[in-house]
Specification:
- The chain has 274 residues and is α/β, with parallel strands linked by helices.
- The protein is built from ten helices and seven strands.
- The protein has a seven-stranded parallel beta sheet, sandwiched between helices.
- α5 links the parallel β1 and β2.
- α4 packs across α5 and α7 packs parallel to α8.
- The relative contact order is 0.18.
- About 4% of the residues have low confidence.
């Protein structure tokens, strides 16, 4: 088994296919080492802050790239990282992929990831970690609804800490746990049910189930690298468009594990002012 925490070569950025158009992402043998090399030009780009990323996202939409399209690209990229993690750790077919999702667009990326994995034959359990009955953004709600009825997807909702404790009692059966709970901007201690979901990721790692974080490990700030309490410690993190300052700090590196930077279709003009 190859170690998850290699280092990426530094090369100049070049044009590359976006995840939805990149057949190489799911090619046989595409493990994390190969995927890191594939996306190395994006890891070599200038890093940005969380605020700059939010600005680039808004400007991309003003330039005509719909938010739902950016979410689809991000989720497809995350699904490729999930698949490569299963290959790298020799856990393909070991059990279902457990995707823990918050109510926002980070959770929406997780819903898209789940759909792309299921289309490729993986069993997926998707958990909406919220007291509310549905996601909180239009794009996330749309992608949550798209999961309904898929034969390889179980949709669950865990509104309480007790629900997460019950779910966590079988976490050793999962092939992979995906953290799509929260993006950046967290301050102070986490509250339930998200707090208990983070604790579930600890239980997963304690029984050797790898953890993949989307964008950033929950409770790690993408700008400063500061952590809230509790915090996800990931084996692999996929972030988007450019590296993030927070994941390059000592704390961020320790909590993010191997960091991959994936393109999602934000045009160069959207970086103005970053």
């Amino acid at each position: 088994m190859t170690d998850l925490h290699g280092t990426s070569p530094v090369v100049e950025p070049v044009d590359a296919a976006l995840p939805l158009d990149d057949a190489a992402l799911f090619a046989p043998g595409m493990d994390l080492d190969a995927l890191r090399r594939h996306w190395a030009p994006f890891a070599a780009r200038q890093p940005m802050s969380a605020e700059s990323m939010r600005g680039a996202d808004r400007r991309a939409q003003r330039l005509g790239v719909p938010g739902i399209q950016l979410m689809e690209q991000a989720g497809a990229a995350a699904a490729a990282v999930a698949t490569a993690t299963l290959v790298q750790t020799e856990r393909t077919g070991a059990g279902p992929v457990l995707v823990l999702c918050g109510r926002g667009n980070n959770g929406g990326d997780g819903f898209v990831l789940a759909r792309h994995l299921a289309v490729r034959g993986h069993r997926v359990a998707v958990v909406l970690v919220a007291t509310e009955e549905e996601p909180g953004t239009p794009d996330a709600r749309r992608n949550w609804d798209r999961l309904d009825g898929h034969p390889l997807i179980d949709r669950l909702r865990t509104p309480t800490a007790r629900d997460l404790q019950i779910l966590g009692s079988g976490v050793e059966k999962a092939a992979l746990v995906v953290d799509a709970l929260l993006g950046t901007g967290v301050s102070g201690s986490l509250r339930d049910p998200v707090r208990s979901a983070v604790e579930l990721t600890w239980r997963a790692r304690a029984v050797a189930v790898p953890v993949l974080a989307i964008d950033t490990p929950t409770a790690v700030d993408l700008t400063s690298g500061a952590q809230s309490d509790p915090v996800v410690r990931a084996d692999v993190t996929v972030t988007f468009h450019r590296p993030k300052h927070g994941l390059l700090t000592r704390t961020g590196r320790a909590l993010a594990g191997l960091v991959l930077v994936a393109p999602i279709g934000i045009p160069a003009g959207a970086d103005i002012g970053s």
